[in-house]
Amino acid sequence: MVYFFYGTLCDADVLKLILGYRPSPRQFRPARLPGWRRKRARGRSYPVLLRATGGWVTGLLFRPARATDAPRLTAYEGPEYITRNLSVRRGQPHPAPRAAPARARVFLPAGSSLPAGFDDWALPRWQRRDKAAFLRSLQDQGPTPCASR
To answer: pTM here?
Structure first.
């Protein structure tokens, strides 16, 4: 099973807190998800995806190394997200626009419980503005942070 990360899980410090270890660089590959757009969730600091014809979202393919990885990721995302097996493209949009497709588990908003706001979401901006408070909230949850991000 491979996951496509497009938000806070692309941050090494967040992922280490969630998984309980720092994954190897070999577990990651750059990728993009065609047909979607990344928006900040309304009233939250993290993103959600919306369908968008002609759009694409950059992110990372992640191959779990431990049996506990998938349950920890699911617990972290909580009931606001569901996973779907979607087609992704390996590599970045440039210079490999025709990279071979792959399938990956993608966390998507579950119904209307997590509406998108108007702002696009970008990892570097989140890291500057929201990461410190986000990490503190995860650390306050204990050794296996989950759901109430």
So the answer is: 0.89
